[in-house]
Amino acid sequence: MLRKFQYLMALSRERHFGRAAIACNVAQPTLSNAIRQLEEELRVPIVERGHRFLKFTPEGEKVLEYARRICGDFDSLVQDLGAPGQELSGQLRLGVIPTALPMVAHLVAPFTARHPGIKVSIVSLSSRQIQRGLDNFELDAGVTYLDNEPLTGVRMQPLYSERYFLLTHRDTAPADRADITWAEAARLPLCLLTPDMQNRRIADSAFLMAGHKVEPVMETNSMINIFTAVQHGPWSSIVPGQLLGLMRLPDDLIAFPLVTPDVTYVVGIVYADRSPVVPVAKALTAVASSEKLASRIPLLVKEALARNGILWTATRATRSGGV
Questions:
Q1: Is residue 111 very low, low, confident or very high in pLDDT (cuts 50, 70, 90)?
Q2: How far apart are CA 49 and CA 47, in angstroms?
Q3: Mean pLDDT throughout 168-188?
Q4: What is the rounded distance in angstroms from the CA atom of residue 137 to the CA atom of residue 95?
Q5: Looking at the DSSP assignment, which residues form a beta bridge with residue 119?
Q6: 46: part of which helix (H) or strand (E)?
Q7: Closest residue by Cα to residue 189 from 236, 221, 222, 229
């Protein structure tokens, strides 16, 4: 029964029998027959079929909901039975917003050192996808914004506060300025993240507070694309401070703290508010606490900003000198 539930969950993710079979490492007839057997055992239609997968029936959606819960509880049971006195084993499925990816290594490295039996799978997801993944038992934990858009049914552990900077070209930047206002940034040709990313919605909100509705010239869902677009094109962008530590800015680029309004949001670990807590999620938060990441990560960000000429204080960031 458990295997059939796993096939059903794969079909929900892939929306295609062939791709679901590949994801489960079985032949398509094996997966299709297992789902038909499940329909016969439960005496309800689960899937609407044509020449291909169409959708789940209302009864199928109910079965899928239970399948997710049962498979999630089974994974937790397997991990719990391995403790105490034995190393945790299994997998940690971690969803991370793109802007937090550079910081996740500081969490995952000590976690894997302490729990070598755990395989870590990190996926770059939007905050809404992380919420759905936790709700659907497809993620064990996430790293996302904690204090902007509402989160439901989760427990939280803060890691760091995110601040925002204008990344632009030195030859067009204002001289002798320590910072830039959001209103000034709004007048530049901008490359921003796509609206499905919460970081973009945060930027849009800040621009509106400054009295501007911004229409970017270019959009992308990749922070790497943003850096390369600014470096090689005529655009500027809004980037979080921790991402400036990914690179030493080339001589022709410069980053300014954004002010008026001063905007910060907390990023941290989230995991489902269920009892018992998923063992790998519990272990992850324990590592974050013991490693004192909530105090270490801001120091790492501060050092990264200093390499690019930006001074960080408890209340704001400023450039250490003129352009």
A1: very high
A2: 6
A3: 91
A4: 12
A5: 91
A6: none
A7: 236
| Residue 208: CA count within 13 A, CB half-sphere | 6
Provide DSSP, 2-27: HHHHHHHHHHHHHSSHHHHHHHTTS-
Segment 309-320, tens digit of pLDDT: 777 655 555 666
pLDDT at 228 over 60: yes
Q: How many residues does the chain have?
A: 323
Peptide bond between residue 261 and the one before it cis (omega within 30 degrees of 0): yes
Look up residue 84 and give its DSSP letter.
S
Fold of 162-264+301-319: D-Maltodextrin-Binding Protein; domain 2 (3.40.190)
The conformation of residue 52, written as its DSSP 8-state character, comes to: S
183 C-beta neighbours (distance < 10 Å), count: 13
The DSSP annotation for 100-168 comes to: GHHHHHHHHHHHHHH-TTEEEEEEE--HHHHHHHHHTTS-SEEEEESSSS---SEEEEEEEEEEEEEEE
> Which CATH fold would you assign to the domain 1-81?
Arc Repressor Mutant, subunit A (1.10.10)
* Contact call for residues 161 and 267 (beta carbons, < 8 A): yes
Domains in the chain: boundaries: 1-81, 162-264+301-319
User: Smallest Cα–Cα separation from 28: which of 45, 10, 1?
Assistant: 10
**Contact between 78 and 90 (Cβ < 8 Å):** yes
Pinpoint the alpha helices (H) of 210-323.
Answer: 223-232, 241-244, 279-290, 293-307
